[in-house]
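Write out the bound-state structure for LV4SOB2L.
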Amino acid sequence: MDTIFIKQLQVDTVIGVYDWEKTIQQRLLLDIELKTDIRQAAATDNIGQTLDYAVIAQRVTQLITAAPLELIETVAENVAQLLLSEFATTEVSVTVYKPDALPQAQTVGVSIVRRSN
Ligand SMILES: Nc1nc2c(c(=O)[nH]1)N=C([C@H](O)[C@@H](O)CO)CN2
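---
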């Protein structure tokens, strides 16, 4: 199976467990992979035959910024379920980084893989 991916998609949103985090925007970075068959798109050179990564990025950003959340785990799960339900893919990988969370670390994050039932 082939993969369409987006690396380090930046989304600024209200995210965090602590009270001080609920009034500010913080940066999340996302790596997203969607398993799909790209052969028909390649054979026809037609965007309508594949998953448009610009549409995916816009939809994911819209979802994450729609409401504040506490955990990056919830962000990852919500994004994975959206991708599986709205796009022609049977398996997705979602990694969410919160790079400004820990001053003593380059980044923190969570990574998940989800398949359609
Ligand atoms: N596993 C997690 N641990 C923590 C999270 C999280 O989303 N998942 N969040 C926080 C705080 O919001 C932190 O980022 C504030 O700097 C702490 N641990």
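---
The chain is about 30% helix and 30% strand.
The two ends are 17 Å apart (CA to CA).
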